[in-house]
Amino acid sequence: MLVKIKFQKIKKAIIAAAGYGTRFLPATKNQPKEMLPIIDKPIIHHLVEECVASGITDIIIVTRSGQGIMEDYFDSHLELEYMLDVNGKEALLKTVREIPQLANFVYVRQKKNLPYGNGTPLLVAAPLIDDDEAFVYMFGDDLTISKAPVTKQLIDVYYQEKPSAILAVQKVPDSEVERYATVEYKSDGKYKYEIKALLEKMPLGKNPSNMAQFGRFVFSYDVIKEVKKTPTGKDNELWVADVLNNLAKKGKKVIAQPIIGEWLTTGDPLRYMKTQVRFALQREDLGHDFAEFLKNLKL
After folding, report:
1. Which of 8, 150, 174, 298 is the most buried (most CB within 10 A)?
2. CATH number where 16 lies
3. Which pLDDT does position 7 carry in this prediction?
4. Taking each helix axis from N to C terminus, what angle separates 269-282 and 287-295, rounded to the nearest 10 degrees?
5. Ranges of the chain with pLDDT below 70
């Protein structure tokens, strides 16, 4: 008789928010980039909402020194609530009071002795992940627009395929290839999106495809075990791509899943402004008027 293995539901997410945001100085001198607004919500608030909409209840935010503003944001603000209450601003009061209730929040500092890199937050949060559970991993500067949350899309594939890791990918134009890690797919994989390799920031012509990794992942504990053994790579940084390549070379199933929706990055001022525009156009209360404003601009 076949024994059906029961997989624990994915309830935890790690959000990497320990960078310095140097491309946004001086705006990020005293606040993390993840707290820059997309209209009226910080970038990280949008990430949290995507997690919650995907069934996540526990959110681990990896920060650095000087980022207490994020902890304050996801906490109650009694003075503000009192002011809104006495002034009869019930809708705003409801909005503010809901923020701390979005999820259970845990904050972990990224210590200076650890290497720099997009894989380092996994080392920081590793003690909070059980050895029998999978979890979501998110970069703190990537946003998405989609009907079904992108994180939920990845979780559904994880439950179906039971891989060691899933990374979200989307096709990028030739002009963007060198900015990202791009995927080489297996020709003989049991699942059509299994990867052979993930190559970080390859110049056009040396890229294996135009399918680029962005900051949404579902990882099993295999990734935690592997990141602890992975040395620093290009530019002496600890890369998620190196961790996933190591797993793929060992015969573990690693999936690069194309997502249904739109990936938007806020990694530099130009792309941040483009993301602002896309989100504004999506808003029912702003979209029509904003679109009319854009149409009437004399460029």
Report:
1. 150
2. 3.90.550.10
3. 63
4. 120
5. 1-7
